[in-house]
Amino acid sequence: MKVVIAGGHGQIALHLHPLLIQRGHTVAGLIRNPDHAGDLRAAGAEPVLCDLEAEDDLGRFIAGADAVIFAAGAGPGSGAPRKWTVDRDGALKLMRAAQAGSVRRYIMISAMKVEEPRGNEVFRAYLQAKAEADAALRTSGLDWTIVRPGGLRNEPGNGKVAIAASLPDGSIPRTDVAAVVAAVLDTPVTIGRQFDLTSGDSGIDEALSRLI
Predict the structure, then answer these.
(1) Which of 2, 50, 160, 212 is the most exposed place for a label (fewest CB within 10 A)?
(2) Quick check: helix, strand or coil at residue 4?
(3) Which are the contacts of 205, defined by CB distance < 8 A and separation ≥ 6?
(4) How far apart are alpha carbons 43 and 184 in whole angstroms?
(5) How many Å is the maximal CA-CA distance in the chain?
(6) At what angle do helices 174-185 and 11-22 cross, to 10 degrees?
(7) Domains of the chain
(8) Tell me: the pLDDT tens digits for 9-25?
(9) Residues 98, 103, 107, 109: is their CA dihedral positive or negative?
(10) 152, 15 in Cβ contact below 8 A?
(11) Residue 174: enclosing H or E segment and its boundaries?
(12) Per the residue annotation, which of 61, 84, 106, 126 is the catalytic one?
């Protein structure tokens, strides 16, 4: 399967590339900065230069793909306007390109409790942007899955997670988020599902099986 990842140089994506390749997929990552191309190649992915904010039509960047993964984000140092142009509008552009190009499978990396407004102006914009993108994906007609991790940590994961439609506040290493996304791509029962994700006591395959 050919997989295209928007936000190909993000921290989760850089963990995700080699996991997908180990599963037999080929991977391309969309990046804005050409200086990041070497990092993608080192992770086994093909770098594709694409500025999600500047491009109106992403079709040519995902041509030939079997699945797309939205792992892009404006980042913690950005202001409220970029939450809309990246976290919402970038995801919407990728949906339109997938629909036009008959790329059925779309996995969204979102966040827990995005429908609950809280925090400062920038964080509230981030939550609303993610909530609107998730809502659009649920009605897109694509074969979607929305993965909603809790707070993200940087230490190595242990492959033990909690997955459910709704979970209490929690956190999870980025490496475990990447491992769950890789497993989701190979688990058809996750199509049409949205779930929260934190560290827990279950193996990933076992936790995903409970979504059935």
Answers:
(1) 212
(2) strand
(3) 183, 187
(4) 20
(5) 43
(6) 40
(7) 2-209 (3.40.50.720)
(8) 999 999 999 999 999 99
(9) negative
(10) no
(11) helix 174-185
(12) 126
Sequence-ordered strand ranges (E) for the chain: 2-6, 26-31, 46-49, 67-70, 105-109, 143-149, 151-153, 160-164, 171-173, 193-199, 202-203
CA gap 201, 127 in Å, rounded: 28
State yes or no: is 126 an active-site residue.
yes
**Which residues lie closer than 8 Å to 120 by C-beta, 6 or more apart?**
none
Q: How many CA atoms lie within 13 A of 183 on its CB side?
A: 17
State the burial class of residue 150 (Cβ atoms within 10 Å of its Cβ: 0-12, 13-18, 19+).
buried
pLDDT band per the 50, 70, 90 thresholds, residue 183: very high
Q: Which amino acid is at 101?
A: G
Give 132-164 pLDDT, tens digit per residue: 999 999 999 999 999 999 999 999 999 999 999
Look up residue 96 and give its two tokens.
Answer: 């339109």
- In the Cβ-directed half-sphere of 179, how many Cα atoms lie within 13 Å? 20
Q: Which two tokens stand for residue 32?
A: 């804005």
Q: How far apart are CA 125 and CA 189, in angstroms?
A: 32
Given the structure tokens 């279950």, which residue do they identify?
Answer: 202
CA-CA distance, 82 to 191, in Å (whole number)? Answer: 29
| Cβ atoms within 10 Å of 124's Cβ, excluding its own | 14
Conformational region of residue 175, where left means phi above 0, alpha means psi within -120 to 50, and beta covers everything else: alpha
